[in-house]
Specification:
globular; ComplexI_NDUFA9_subunit; 7-stranded parallel sheet; alpha/beta; NAD(P)-bd_dom_sf; protein-containing complex binding; 273 residues; 12 helices
Amino acid sequence: MSLIASKIAPSIVVFGGNGFVGKRICQAGINAGFSVTSLSSSGVPPKPVVEEDSQWISKVDWQKANVFDPDSYKKHLKNKTSVVHSIGILFENSNYKDSLSDSPFSFLKKFNPLGANPLKKANESLTYEKMNKQSALILAKAYAEQLLESNALPETKVESPSFVYISADQGFPGLSKGYLQTKREAEQQLKLDYENIFRSIIMRPGFMYDETDKKSVRSVFSTLANIGNKIPVVDLLVRPSISTQKVGISAIRRIQDKKFSGIVFLDAIVNNY
């Protein structure tokens, strides 16, 4: 096999690629010339929000998989340049995403910054431990196994592979401490277990919003963050928000930088470096 033929083309797998953040990572990957595969529980592509979305959506390979069952997606991890974990929960409640799609004011009525979790658990299986931590470690283990198996053959060796974990800068008033705790535990475990197998890239965005979705509750937090930039007291509670588009572009840049590993802090994402 020739040297040219033996090179692995840049390719990524995004688990949760049809989700809020994941779809923008898929978009950034397509725009950067990557081959992109999305894995999700439904396998269904997201609905286009703007005309531009239809173009990149048509170029992504949308596949159905269960993150807790590696046999359902091992074949999709083979020879991939990078794997991105972009799933998780903000509240330990299966209905919170529906609440986020309500009007900003209806959500804020449910949001009590001084109390406990404002949304009662509707599904005990959706815990921070399971969704934010264990799902990432299971996916990372499956990817590591594929790399160790494939790299035994020169023609299928993946150069400078990476695993991207979408973590968080910090929480916000009213959010359970378990959210950030499980994120940090996952970060630490990825570094300890796989330091010699792949580059761990930890993205720490703030509260995220989509640039094309101007009416969602995320825009409210964006406004609060902008106020916080001017009022120090508010800034202690509300960190700068960030668009999912910027997070996606930043993640792809770190994948392309074959020497980078570690944490990508909020300021770096905000300021495009």
